[in-house]
Hints:
It is a single chain. By secondary structure, the protein is an alpha+beta fold. It has 2 domains: 2-158, Ribosomal Protein S5, domain 2; 164-280, Alpha-Beta Plaits, CATH 3.30.70. Helix content is 36%, strand content 28%. The protein contains 11 helices and 11 strands. It has helices spanning 66-78, 100-116, 122-129, 136-141, 176-181, 194-202, 206-212, 218-224, 226-239, 259-269, 285-291; strands at 2-19, 25-45, 50-54, 83-89, 144-149, 153-157, 164-168, 214-215, 244-245, 252-256, 276-280. The strands form 2 sheets. Strands 1, 2, 3, 4, 5, 6 and 8 form a 7-stranded mixed sheet that branches. The chain has a 4-stranded antiparallel sheet with strand order 9-10-7-11. A hairpin with a 5-residue loop joins β1 and β2 (25-45). α1 runs parallel beside α2 (100-116). The longest helix is centred in the middle third of the chain and has 17 residues, at 100-116.
Amino acid sequence: MLFQRAYAKINLTLDVLGRRGDGYHEVDMVMQTVDLSDVLWLEPRDDGEITMDSTSSSVPVDERNLCVQAAHAFRRRTGFRGGVHIQLDKHIPVAAGLAGGSSDAAAVLRGLNQMSGAGLTLDELAELGAEIGSDVPYCVYGGLAIARGRGERVTRYPHVPAMYAVLLHPRIFVSTADVYKGLSPSDFTDAPRSETMVQALAEGQLERVAEIVHNALERVTMSLYPELKALKERVASIAQRPVHMSGSGPTLYVLTPVQTHAQRLYNALRGIMKDVYVCRFVGGYAEAHARS
């Protein structure tokens, strides 16, 4: 049985450059993995079948699941015919803007690559991941990266800033499709903030990072879900620091370079909602393997 960890991500920047001819939007965003993670076990099957179980009833375990799709895509690409049972221990909130499903799919690709001995590089796995979902290529790598295009063009950076994120996941369902549909040309930019963000992180200007964070989707999400806007304002009054949104939402987060401050904020926010997490920034999977 093979163990894989699938980390959540947050968007430190998310700029939309415009609408593409294929119906997607052109994005330019900085993403960072945090140590909130799902755990997967991959067990070989002798009958060649691909099966799956999950600890979360909110997660489908059939062909709709990106993990199952990833296993099929891997077999098509490599010719591997072995079966696998995927056991998912779910900790990342579902439909939260944290790329939990994409990270799980990326973990399956990495795991099957190891199990089968196919020997694909991370770059080749990321290319394969682009067939499954826009965030999967980034999730194959993890760590700090800029993702461009519809998210599939990934530039990685080795920095692991000593930063903490306090995440809040309200029980609000956000339709990503509706959020992107609500964008107007005034939300688009030709001056993305990604390079400025990466430079601030590389130079250790951690207090400046929170000032650079930007999410072009936030205006639309907050207008569609006023209860989320009200929660953000309440959290800001408690935290006395900027409050940000990851992806299309609804997860909100507060950044701090000080662990004790993150813990105090966690304690305060637990008084107003259940799903609060203290996370630290973590490096990518390639760096983790190099250390092991």
